[in-house]
Amino acid sequence: MRSALMIFAVLMTVAAWAQDEPFPGWQPEPGDLDPQQNIALGKVVTYAPDPNYGLTKAGATDPTDLTDGVLSDHHRGHLWFDSKCVGWSYGGFCSLMLDLGGVEPIGEVAMRIQGGSPSIGVATPVWMAVVVSDDGESWRRVGEYSTFRDGDDARFGVPPYEGVAWVHRFRFTDLATRGRYVGISLYGAGLTVADEMYVFRGDHDPDAVDLTALPESDFSVTRPHMILHKPYLCFTTNVTTPNPVGLLASTGHEEEPVTIVLDLPPGTELVSGDGFGRGEEDAPLAEIAPEAIDDGWTRYEFAANAGGNTKTWGRLFIGGDWADGQEGELRYATVYADGTRTPPVPVPLRAIEVPPTPQPQRLLVGLSWYGLGALMSWPNAIEDYRALGFNTVNGMIHWMRDVEENQDAWDFWEACRDAGFKLQDIDSPFHRIPNEPETRCQFADGTTGGRLCPSYRGPHYQAEIERVARQCALARPDYLFADIEVWNWRGPVDAENCTRCQADFAASGLATWDEWKLAKGYEMWTDMVEAARAAVAQVGGPAIEFGVYDWRAGKVYQFTWPFDEFYPEYLQSSQPSTYTPLYPYHIMVVGNEAREDREFLPRADVMPWISPGDAGTFPGERFRYALLECFANGSRGMQFWSGRVWDAEILAAYARVIRNVAPVEDVLMDGELLEGAQVQGAGRISGVVAGDEVVILVADYLGETDGTVTVALPVDGAMTATDLDTGETLAVAADGTLVVPLNGEMARLLHVTR
Fold this sequence. Notes:
CATH architecture of the domain at 4-217: Sandwich
Number of helices: 15
């Protein structure tokens, strides 16, 4: 769905134009350019995997961009445009290393990284670690930063996120360590960009440093190894849920056999697992017998194949009889064919019990881009999916079009329908029109453009319309939600120079090219919808609801797709894209964009897209607040990209949201946005009102209050506010005053009634 390089190039360009004040430029700090102090200067950086952001890769200078002593001089201070920088788009876990040439005393390691979110995904890493080594094989961790740890942002002086670009220098100081090799591991956000890293020589005796006293690390830029997406792992005790496991590997790494060793503490077990490059000849992970080891622990060993870098090398399903909130630790290691192994990696482990969760009848709650095959890998998939409160199963039917080859998937699809789930197909219409000369814009000199011609209606176009129609007739989905990014944010820019488009424009009688582009977009989408509807009606399927990623009420997408012309006949939901609730600023933006779209619509036809962690992972509580913001600002469902990093913690948080909103779904579906409510002092309020009932979300994400938010509601008498999470009741005074103690939460969802 997301073209990793395209989406940010588009958004970053818009952001650049939106900030008109010239940037004054950065200056090096004392010692930065002194090779006797900054001993990283001039060294070559090795990456695993290589940085992948196109604009910063220009010139192929990434190996030296971070150590050349040159800061970005982009006139807006936007690193993502500057080839002097290094960037990772949706990079996830990445590592980089430099060789100092000899063992040196190390006092500080630092790195300058873009943040501020001028576009939502532009953020500093959610986690960083600094490691050192004398030999490049055995590594020790000497510093760490994590957004998951309270106080780290303040400790590292990270500026607040307010939608304006800044660059922050992360300093790991007072290290008093040594090493010939210095490494940094980081877990990136949607777009992570840096322009310089530093290693400052310490004034201590390196021979006096005892590296063995420091924590071991499985850091490597040459050998693949298993990774987790968070610095801890959760598992659900009464519902079986997955935890994704990644593989960190250098770019171009050739597949090699490895063994994974997983040690689980007493009271826990490996229920099942999937992936890890294992073949059909390998025994399912559910059948692997554990080995009893010391102190009641159990060890699971299984063969795997380590190929290219990936966030979804495999999934682990861990269970146990721990009490809710019980904490402990697991360990894992990667063992190579030559017998060498990474040191055991200890990971904090926490149990979550999922209370009974009802399935909403009207709201759409599912996992969107979470593939059908991934769901099929769950033990007791249908039962556990229902237990989490989900009511919609998702599939990408295009990849199942060979029914015989995918019979198991089709049987599961129909079993989900029989079990009462709604079915949602995700597709990318028009992207599959072949890149043939006839389908591209035609230029007078005989050349063709690089993207789909908006006036092309030849056999490949007709075949694409028929493909979608056949697919819908086969799957009979309740929803078809599409992603159409066949042009960039400027739309079909080649059209005005295309001889075919010029002839079509002349024949159209329209006054402007802008009108013509909208007419072409309208024609394309309605052709597809009408064909799909006719095909489904012929087989007796349901009336399909249609929606498209980032097609928003009151807006035109890529100068081609006019939402307001489509809605509600050919399009039934507005789908803003906000992507990630990394910080309080992002959580509020998610709610604000949902509200903006709801204000244009007569009903709660908003389904925002956010990420469950692809654009940077985050704690479950932040995810919960983001979803509550959507529902409290007029949404009736959610969409997610992608399916790679759904874990037990995020799924449990989603189930908690469902328990919160299911009792008031009629208010959310039938109500209007709450108007006239005011916050007295700091804080935030969002809400939906239907008759005498109001659902409000009262929040203080920025920590600006003393833990209590006071609001004034536009009511005409005393009422009662019931916390939809805890059941606690609060009194609403006759004048509408409501005092909300947050009780350690950032937000509370309340149902206000007579």
